[in-house]
Structure formats: C-alpha cells, structure tokens
Amino acid sequence: MPQPTAAPTLAGRMCMQSGQVVFAGSGPGDPDLLTLKALAALQQAEVILFDRLVSPEILELAGPQAILENVGKEGFGAQVSQQHICNRLITHAQAGKRVLRLKSGDATLFGRLDEELSACDAAGVRYQIVPGITAASAAVAGIGQSLTQRGRNSSVRYLTGHDTQGFADHDWQALARPGEVAAIYMGKKSARFVQGRLLMHGANPATAVTVVENASRTNQRVLETTLGQLPADLAEARFDGPALTFLGLAPRASLTALPDLPVQTDLKMELA
Amino acid sequence: MPQPTAAPTLAGRMCMQSGQVVFAGSGPGDPDLLTLKALAALQQAEVILFDRLVSPEILELAGPQAILENVGKEGFGAQVSQQHICNRLITHAQAGKRVLRLKSGDATLFGRLDEELSACDAAGVRYQIVPGITAASAAVAGIGQSLTQRGRNSSVRYLTGHDTQGFADHDWQALARPGEVAAIYMGKKSARFVQGRLLMHGANPATAVTVVENASRTNQRVLETTLGQLPADLAEARFDGPALTFLGLAPRASLTALPDLPVQTDLKMELA
C-alpha cells in the first residue's frame, strides 16, 4: 500500500516564529484528518497546550522538542480556568517559545477561541489560526449523508446543547420545522431539554435523529433514533465519548449493504 | 525550517480499493489545508474527477498514475451535467479503477454529494467519504474571528445564496435578529436579494458583513462592510474568485496591528 509522503512544498506557509502562538484545530480524533498545516505545527512547536479531547495518537506526532501541557478542563479538574490557559499562552509566548494551542475539532466552532485571541491581543502576542475538521463534518461522513441537500435543506445550523448559563436556548420554533437539519454539539446531557423544547414547538416526534459518538475514531458508534425516542435510546446507549447529535438526518439506508463504510449501524439493533 | 514528514502510521486507514470511489473534500484551496487522508487518496487514485474550484496546487499532488478529469460545471461549460458526473464515476469504478471524487471545501456542505452517493448505491459501487475544511472555517480564521462566541452567539448557520430554483429562500426573520451569525456560500450574485430580504425583516443596516474572497489562498482578499453597503461595496470590489459572506461578523479589530496574520484588510481602505 502506498504511503503518503509530504512533498517539500507542503506546509510551506507554516513556519512558526519564536514568541508566536498558532491556534490549530486537531480535527475530531483520527490523526489522518489532521491538515498538513496542523501536522507541521505539531512538529515545529516547542510548547503545545492541548485540550482533553485531542487524541493521544495526535499528540504522539509532536516533535521531540515539544513540551506538552494538558489544559483540558476535565482532565485537570475544574481548576483549569480559561484565565489560566490564557496566562500559560502568554507566558510561553513572551518567553520566546513557538507555542501551539491545539483544540479538538475546528478551533473556530465552540472552541472559546475569542477569549484566547483577546488575551494575545492585550499582551501584544502574535498569532495565526489554522482551521480544522469539525466533528459535524466527520460525523456526517460517517453516516453516509451530507449536511445540505438540494430539495431537502439549503441551510444547516450548528448549535451547542449547553452554554455557560446551562442549557442553551435557541430558536426552537424554527428548528422544529420539517426539513430542518442541525448539528448539535455537546448535546448528550441536554438531550431531554432539547427534545422537550422541540416537541413543545410542534416538532414531529418521528423526526430522524442520529447520534455519532467518537466520530472518525476507531471506536465510532452510531445511534439511529427519533426525536421521540432520543433521551431513552441515548440513556440506554451509555455513550461516554464526545457525541454529535444530528436533528433531521438518519444514516444512509444503504449503509448496512456496504460493510467497508467506516460506520457501525448495529447499535440500534443491539438496543432494540 | 523543519519539513513535515508523514509518519508511516498516518493515513493508515486510507487504502483505496479497486472499483471503490473515495469522495473527498480538498479544502478551500491552500494545499496545506488538505487532510493527510485526502493527500493519501490523491496519491493512490487512478482516476480523479475534480471540480472547477479545486486548486491547481492540489492537483499537482496526484500520483503519476492518475488520470485527471475536469468535471467542473463552469470549466467544461453548462453541458457537464450532474448525470454525466455520476456516469463517469460509475464507469470508472465498474472498470475496477481506484476513483477519487475531489470536491472543493467539504464535500458534505453544498457539494451535491447525495446525488453521487445515490448513483453509487444504485450501481452497487462501494465508497467512502473523507471530510474536508469548508470555506467558512478558513475564511473566519482569515479574519481572526470564530464562528461562535460565548455570550454572543451559541449557534451559527451555513446557507447558500442560491439554489436550483434561483435565489434561495431562508428564515429571514430569524436571520435578521441582532447577534445572528451566518456564513453565506455562493452569496455574491445574491447579495442584493439577501440584503433586501434581511432589511425587509427588520435587520439593522449597520450589521457587520465581511466577504472573504479566495479564503486561504495567497490571493485572499477581505471586504469589511455593512449590510446596508454590501451590494455597492461588493460591486466595487469586483471579486471574481469564490467568496464567503459572513453576516454578523467583522474582522478582528487588532488585525491591522498584526502584519503577519494572513489577511488583507486594506481593501476597504482602497475602496473608500
């Protein structure tokens, strides 16, 4: 099997500078979904501040010179505050290090990127941002669907199940309409809340809902359910990895006929 | 400067099979934003069917055995129908080729992926889907912003400016609300239509709007404007590359103070 070899021209525009911070998305977990630019940053960085959901396989690609700091909010416990992360970024950058801030998925989506950019701005620290593959893209590929489809939906919404104030409020009336497609991040704990709000606004309980756990990873699991059954099926599935919930999308019907598609569709059957 | 070298374990799960189609997103244009998996597919494919917006720098990474077919809708003229693309995919796959269907951006967003997947299903052709970096992610990184922000917006909408029926209709009332953030694909021609609909539904003409042309490419340009000024400023800018329009986002204020950020902010000044 041919192996990819990065040509010398690749990542040509990624040359980390001393005292600079690169904010990069690591993608959803599969190291093969890293961009060439993020890989270059991993290999060049002297300090890497990483989140809890960045997979170990990705951290193994760091250069030998790199010092790795886990600033994952759950990994270290609740005491790793956003302020602490900002302070660490600034301290390392001002010490002249090449700093990589590695966030899972795409740093620009639900990544609290702004707070860290503002801290850099305030301290006069230079930075650049490298986009990554967001979980929704990997998850939808895993169920053989696309996020938009001619004649079905010409828009898609990405939203979060909870925010700093608790469960996040959204335009439930619009989301409850037939044909709406949404990717809900961090939607496990808020599943019953989201279901309640949508049904209250007239959503059809038979609306397709799919939950993809560990999208793109070797332990990816797929739960095919409906809005009406979501909380019960989710409780039974006992997902403990990061999960992406699709409202208005079911896995492609042909999936079970295509055994080499990287998706597990037997979960619902196990549960049923 | 260290060069990235793809470790032997990388793209380990990408091994294209004879008679299989890999649908992959090429990202927004910068070859360094390819995923390792897409690069592996480029190197392994025997036939590559590519869209008009896939950049030449990316096509240069194809293996020497690859036959490249341009199926771009504008590249070949209007006669390259979706049906023709589907036929070519099936013909090559049934001839036992390793086929790569390369779409710009992320194949699962506004990529008409479903029609091609259905054609494969109908013909019994096996496939897999490799997600890519979508233009919105690269564009927002280019203006130093993020698509969501705590306390500002906990959801973001991706929509298209026009569909097969002409200008696409959307939930303008919801989009017109203060604080809404949306990424509008293919929004150049529909700028006046979108502006009209939003203003009709009460949007503030001072709402920030940013248009990023050729996101991530060396010829990236940024137009900072407002909803009220959008059509006039866009006409004056004469963008001829692919453009992504952000509703509710302005470039980060500090950008001009950070000359190494890959963004051009002098365009508006040129225009003013």
UniProtKB/TrEMBL annotation, chains A, B:
<dbReference type="Pfam" id="PF00590">
    <property type="entry name" value="TP_methylase"/>
</dbReference>
<keyword id="KW-0489">Methyltransferase</keyword>
<dbReference type="InterPro" id="IPR014777">
    <property type="entry name" value="4pyrrole_Mease_sub1"/>
</dbReference>
<dbReference type="InterPro" id="IPR035996">
    <property type="entry name" value="4pyrrol_Methylase_sf"/>
</dbReference>
<dbReference type="GO" id="GO:0004851">
    <property type="term" value="F:uroporphyrin-III C-methyltransferase activity"/>
</dbReference>
<feature type="domain" description="Tetrapyrrole methylase">
    <location>
        <begin position="21"/>
        <end position="230"/>
    </location>
</feature>
<protein>
    <recommendedName>
        <fullName>uroporphyrinogen-III C-methyltransferase</fullName>
        <ecNumber>2.1.1.107</ecNumber>
    </recommendedName>
</protein>
<keyword id="KW-0949">S-adenosyl-L-methionine</keyword>
<dbReference type="GO" id="GO:0019354">
    <property type="term" value="P:siroheme biosynthetic process"/>
</dbReference>
<dbReference type="InterPro" id="IPR006366">
    <property type="entry name" value="CobA/CysG_C"/>
</dbReference>
<comment type="pathway">
    <text>Porphyrin-containing compound metabolism; siroheme biosynthesis; precorrin-2 from uroporphyrinogen III: step 1/1.</text>
</comment>
<keyword id="KW-0808">Transferase</keyword>
<dbReference type="InterPro" id="IPR014776">
    <property type="entry name" value="4pyrrole_Mease_sub2"/>
</dbReference>
<dbReference type="GO" id="GO:0032259">
    <property type="term" value="P:methylation"/>
</dbReference>
<dbReference type="InterPro" id="IPR050161">
    <property type="entry name" value="Siro_Cobalamin_biosynth"/>
</dbReference>
<comment type="similarity">
    <text>Belongs to the precorrin methyltransferase family.</text>
</comment>
<keyword id="KW-0627">Porphyrin biosynthesis</keyword>
<dbReference type="InterPro" id="IPR000878">
    <property type="entry name" value="4pyrrol_Mease"/>
</dbReference>
